[in-house]
Amino acid sequence: MAGFAQLTAMLQTRDMAGTIAFYTGLLGFSVASRWPLEDPVWCLLERDGARVMFMTNDHLGKPAMTGTLYIQTDDVLEVHRRLEGHVHVLWGPEVYEYGMHEFAIKDCNGYTISFGEPTDPAELQTSKEPSGVS
User: Which domain CATH number covers 90?
Assistant: First the structure.
């Protein structure tokens, strides 16, 4: 079977400039690519190992997603301190029984982004799944 090299979410936005400003200004991403250069309708944003693409495709309707973008970090409380007061925090920070310290926000498009840090350093070395998940 062919291998998969990477998974990168491609999400819709109605405000490309606002989305780029949110992700670069508040979350520290950089613009890795955009097309076209002037007034882009697509962009790739990166920070460390995290990548996300945004596109404007009005024919697809209102941007919507039923899932959550999940970013693992090495200091969830520092990320929370930087963002608190600048974004809508949905929950947390809270330590969960499955070994993660997490909180979540809404981005400028209404997408949910959850940030998590393992509470046990050994969690980084294993791929344990939360109880109840198979």
Answer: 3.10.180.10
Backbone angles phi, psi at 26, to 5 degrees: -90, -35
Taking residue 52's Cβ as centre, other Cβ atoms within 10 Å add up to: 22
Query: Does residue 132 lie within any of the structural domains?
Result: no
Q: pLDDT by residue (tens digit) across 11-55?
A: 999 999 999 999 999 999 999 999 999 999 999 999 999 999 999
> Which tens digit of pLDDT belongs to each residue from 93-107?
999 999 999 999 999
Other CB atoms within 10 Å distance of the CB of residue 70: 14
Residue 2, in any domain of the structure: no
Q: Residue 111 sits in which domain range?
A: 66-122
Query: Is residue 56 within 8 Å of 64, Cβ to Cβ?
Result: no
Residue 67 pLDDT = 87
| Tally of domains within the chain | 2
pTM > 0.90: yes or no: no
CA-based torsion, 128, 117, 96, 92: positive or negative: negative
Residues 77 and 118 in one domain: yes
